[in-house]
Amino acid sequence: MPCSCAQWRRWIRPLVLVLYALLLVAVVPLCIWELQKDKVGTHSKAWFIAGVFVFLTIPISLWGILQHLVHYTQPELQKPIIRILWMVPIYSLDSWLGLRYPSLAIYVDTCRECYEAYVIYNFLIFLLNFLSHQHPNLAMILEVQQQQPHLPPLCCCPPWPMGEVLLFRCKLGVLQYTVVRPVTTVIALICQLCGVYDEANFSFRNAWSYLVIINNISQLFAMYCLVLLYRALKEELTPIRPVGKFLCVKLVVFVSFWQAVLIAILVKVGVISDKRTWDWESVEAVATGLQDFIICIEMFLAAIAHHYTFSYKPYVQEAEEGSCFDSFMAMWDFSDIREDVSEQVRNVGRTFLGRPNKMYFGSTARPEHSENSGLLNSTSQDAITSSTSGIVGPQGTSMPPSPTSSGRYQGLGHTQAPHSTSAPAGFTQPTPTGENH
């Protein structure tokens, strides 16, 4: 049975603060002991300074996550926000550990690199969930709008048809990075074990150069699809102020990637060379350590930006009901990404076989091949259909209805929206002209 304590909101935040204080009491002496044990050189000083920023960053991020869990009134919007907010603590701790143990950096960085693809995917979920609730006939709205041309450098390509096709291709463009990035990360681990990875060395004799090119193309195309979707639905997305949120996601992902490339260029031209490795064992360790040190500092700034950009305040409701266990479990529900990726693989496979769906987002599509059965259906459509006599599951089975006013977690893949037809409190409702183009 989920715990449902009426007073849990009063003690959960002080409890987290006490636990964090106890963590500091244990970690700070450990850091001082490590500094005294080792010869205090550049490496140790960098690790200690980075640790200061990390332990300033984590409480800011955890506070924002905790506030969303306490005021978990819009599950379909707050669940992807919470996943995005976790990016900063994961990046900070990963980089700090990689800075302390350079030989393990390739392994701990795997978590960070995979999570950045997951963040982009969740940002897409956030946008589409909001759009599907505010505009159930989103495809029809797009069809009557002016044709959106491609942006540079794809401006010479034929534009994607407005409506279902544009939504489908933008979604597919983002999801491909969700698949490509983990695959290339696993390949990087294998190449490292085989001794052919050679990180931060621009040479086509190693695997790192090829993987950087693949990841860069995949990442740029995912971001391109997000920008194209925003341009097509700029007016409809205005209430949630997507520009600041997009910049927070884009800057963290892009800056971390391109500064790694810049450091590799500095190694290539000899600015970072064997003559000055300080306390590191090799030039590669210096390049990796410099990247991790910079990320630890950048995440402090990112935590502050996320605190204001992905604020919990629009979701605060006067009459809140819910369970701390339900809110916490909703944060760990990953069933939606599994359904979306498998659905896109089926759609791509049918396209290559010459049997693409005629309807991507339409209600006449077969349920097992409907584009809407994944990203939109797992959260948004369940919330919309909950206002009827019951909820239709992925296999066409009927599930009992649940009170839409509770906003409680209903199990894997069935998180209900307490206000499925309205924007969160504090957000400006879109003007009627947004649906009559």
TrEMBL record:
Residues 394-407 have a biased composition (Low complexity). It is found in: Membrane. Residues 372-390, 417-437 have a biased composition (Polar residues). Signal peptide: none annotated. InterPro entries: Ostalpha/TMEM184C. The chain crosses the membrane at residues 12-35, 47-69, 81-102, 114-132, 207-230, 251-273, 285-305. Keywords: Membrane, Transmembrane, Transmembrane helix. Its main location: membrane. SMART domains: Solute_trans_a. The keyword Transit peptide does not apply. Residues 363-437 are annotated as: Disordered. One of its GO terms (cellular component) is membrane. It is a multi-pass membrane protein. This is Transmembrane protein 184C. The lineage of its organism: Eukaryota, Metazoa, Chordata, Craniata, Vertebrata.
